[in-house]
Amino acid sequence: MGISNYSGIEYGQMSLGIKKKFLLTSAFITDADVYIFDEPTNGLDSDSITFLIELLISLAEEKVVIFSSHDNRFLQELNLITYEIKGGKIS
User: Fold this and answer.
1) Residue 68 falls within a domain, yes or no?
2) Number of compact structural domains in the chain
3) Which domain does 86 fall in, by range?
4) Residue 63: which of 41, 40, 30, 39 has the closest Cα?
5) Which of 40, 50, 73, 87 has the smallest count of CB within 10 Å of its CB?
6) CATH assignment of the domain containing 45
7) What GO molecular function annotations does the UniProt record carry, in alphabetical order (predicted)?
8) What residues contact residue 77 under an 8 Å CB cut-off, 6+ apart?
């Protein structure tokens, strides 16, 4: 995800996108059975979103991936089973 260039920068000084990359990378380092993400594309640039989509598609082949997102491009490109919460109901 292109974070190696930021190793000498304090976390608080990083942009939202770089912070998000660090958080996502730390999540992917673990070998969990279930991954839960809240708005994983928030703050990411287009290239990082494309990389994340490819990674999540691959991950979802063997793991359970749950996330919330308002990013329609992200949701459409994932092409996974999705549920929508609208008016307090899941559809």
Assistant:
1) yes
2) 1
3) 33-90
4) 30
5) 87
6) 3.40.50.300
7) ATP binding; ATP hydrolysis activity
8) 53
CA angle 84–49–57, rounded 5-degree value = 65
- pLDDT by residue, tens only, the chain of 91 residues: 566 777 788 888 888 888 888 888 888 888 899 999 999 999 899 988 998 999 899 999 999 999 899 898 888 888 778 788 889 998 8
Q: What is the torsion angle, in degrees rounded to the nearest 10, for the CA atoms of residue 64, residue 69, residue 72 and residue 78?
A: -20
86 token code pair? 């609208």
The one-letter amino acid at 73: R
DSSP summary character for residue 89: E
Provide the token pair at 80: 């996974």
Read off the pTM. Answer: 0.74
Q: Residue 37 domain-assigned?
A: yes
